């Protein structure tokens, strides 16, 4: 297994890069996608969230309104910590399970983790950061996700800095251009990933340092 970390700030286009890598043959273990799966109607994680933050977070079909949940916890450190205590252990267990299933393969496995700076992983063969200027990230969040300008800036400010992400990168993908430019860069990064030596047996576990 070749194990690579992929990260980028909100609005960076990390999901698009992840999809491009998957199309080239990478196995993607996506922390955000796993979070959504674990918050499905009837799940234990969703039941804990509702118990902590209220049933008004559910729509008529029992689906979590993620935007409403975000509005309750962002800007409230205590509420965010309570949510993280519910969600993060469950996501970590599921990511670990999927990673274990890949350890004896020859696949390129990409850990798609938004908070890779804040929560380092041991033993990665390499790290890729999707980067773009912060004003462009804000513009894309406003245009593509219907966020307000203030909300977009607030979300970005609560993540690691652009400089901190770039500092951990072995490869940086500049997503300030068009899709054609992005495809060319992803091709180059994919060739680099496939050339990396395999990961150690214990690679990918959460750092306790």
Report what the structure shows.
- The chain is 50% helix and 12% strand.
- With 209 residues, it is an alpha/beta fold.
- It has 2 domains: 1-26 and 107-209, Rossmann fold (3-Layer(aba) Sandwich), CATH 3.40.50; 33-104, P-loop containing nucleotide triphosphate hydrolases (Rossmann fold), CATH 3.40.50.300.
- A 5-stranded parallel sheet has the order 2-3-1-4-5, sandwiched between helices.
- Helix 6 crosses helix 7 (149-157).
- The two termini are 24 Å apart.
- The model has no long low-confidence stretch (mean pLDDT 93).
Here the CATH topology of the largest domain equals Rossmann fold
> What spatial form do the alpha-carbon principal axes imply?
globular
State which percent range the strand residues make up: 5-15%
The CATH architecture term of the largest domain is 3-Layer(aba) Sandwich
Question: What does the average pLDDT come to?
Answer: 93
The main β sheet shows up as: 5 strands, parallel
For the largest sheet, list the strands in their spatial order.
2-3-1-4-5
Radius of gyration: 17 Å
Structural class label: alpha/beta
Number of distinct beta strands: 5
Percent helix among the residues?
40-55%
Low-confidence stretches: none
Q: How are the SSEs placed, and which strands pair?
A:
Elements: E1 2-8, H1 14-23, E2 27-30, H2 31-38, H3 44-53, H4 66-73, H5 77-100, E3 108-112, E4 126-131, H6 134-145, H7 149-157, H8 162-167, E5 171-174, H9 179-195
Parallel strand pairs: 1-3, 1-4, 2-3, 4-5
